[in-house]
Design a protein that fits this description.
338 residues; single chain; alpha/beta; disordered N terminus
């Protein structure tokens, strides 16, 4: 347990989008966990005792690092593909040659890499964060991995928080994420000022691993919803309905969730590139959710089906496209709009 290493105060602007449909709404007092004592407090100056390391500067990690730099926080960055750090070093970040160098002298390290293998390499590989021993600051696991993996990491270093992030790259860049955090209450209290700089809502959801569990539930819903949208549209097209008409009808109906309406625009444009969330990562998260349900002795037929369909679309070569490309498992010959 360590004392809080910073104080913060930051007010953000509401900005609802379909990737985070509640981003523009603050909960009514006393009606949700977010409204209670674990919800975000308005807080503008974050003053860490040392630099913050961001390990992995892809879609989300890059946004987190940019947000910190904008608020005057010293940042060290590392990325497996070094050229991706260039925009951040241009904004004042210091690029490190390897993870251990990035965290040297830091008080907080945020891991935002794609998957379990990448996280293991960052922490335990050559020149990894934990290769030579425990990390003296707080390690924030913002990579979506299994809760059990988070527990294993905590066995190697004294302070770990797992952070389920809800939002997209713009939310990360603007400090508009919703963050669901698992870990000891004292560590959460110490790390909260940093988290409040990154998210408009910061919620302590329970013990270590709980942040990942909440994130997997949210991605479970998103994966099923996007697949349902793709299936409905392709069925409509197969029976002779105009695909654009079907998309407009679904997205304008009361049956469509905000994320469906958002993804309907991508599906209409057949815009697979520049992903908000890569298909292979959705497939990974659905597989993790399926593993969690099996371990809990719970049968979830929709999750199993969605995990299979997303894996199929990934195996067809669409893994690095946006998750709406799951449609290729249903309509393999669907190309781009001419």
């Amino acid at each position: 347990m360590r004392p809080a290493h910073a104080t913060a105060r930051n007010a953000t602007t509401d900005n609802a989008t379909a990737e985070n449909p509640t981003a523009g709404r603050r909960p009514a007092s006393g009606t949700t966990p977010e409204a209670g004592p674990e919800a975000r407090r308005d807080t503008p100056d974050f003053r860490p005792d040392g630099p913050v390391a961001v390990l992995g500067v892809g879609t989300m990690g890059g946004g987190l690092a940019a947000r910190l730099l904008d608020r005057g926080v010293p940042v060290r960055v590392w990325n497996r593909t070094a050229r991706r750090t260039a925009p951040l070093t241009g904004a004042g970040a210091v690029a490190a040659a390897h993870p251990a160098e990035a965290v040297a002298g830091s008080t907080a390290a945020i891991c935002a890499v794609a998957d379990s293998d990448a996280l293991d390499a960052v922490l335990h590989g050559p020149d990894g964060v934990l290769t030579e021993g425990p990390y003296p600051g707080t390690l924030y696991c913002a990579s979506t991995v299994s809760p059990e993996e988070v527990a294993r990491i905590a066995g190697r270093t004294p302070s770990v928080l797992d952070v389920g992030m809800l939002g997209n790259r713009k939310h990360a860049r603007d400090g508009e994420l919703r963050l669901f955090v698992g870990g000891p209450r004292d560590d959460f209290a110490a790390g909260r000022p940093l988290l409040e700089l990154l998210g408009k809502e910061v919620v302590h959801v329970g013990e270590l691993g709980a942040g990942m569990r909440v994130k997997l539930l949210l991605n479970l819903l998103m994966g099923i919803e996007v697949q349902a949208l793709a299936e409905a549209v392709e069925l409509g097209a197969a029976v002779g309905l105009d695909r654009e008409l079907v998309l407009r009808t679904i997205s304008g109906s009361g049956f469509a969730s905000p994320v469906m309406s958002f993804k309907a625009r991508r599906l209409a444009a057949r815009h697979w590139d520049e992903p908000d969330f890569r298909l292979r990562l959705m497939a990974k998260d659905l597989a993790l959710a399926a593993e969690q349900s099996t371990a809990a002795g719970l049968r979830l037929p929709l999750v199993d089906a969605a995990a299979h369909t997303h894996r199929d679309a990934t195996d067809r070569g669409h893994g690095d496209e946006d998750c709406v490309a799951v449609v290729h498992a249903i309509a393999p010959d669907l190309g781009r709009v001419a």
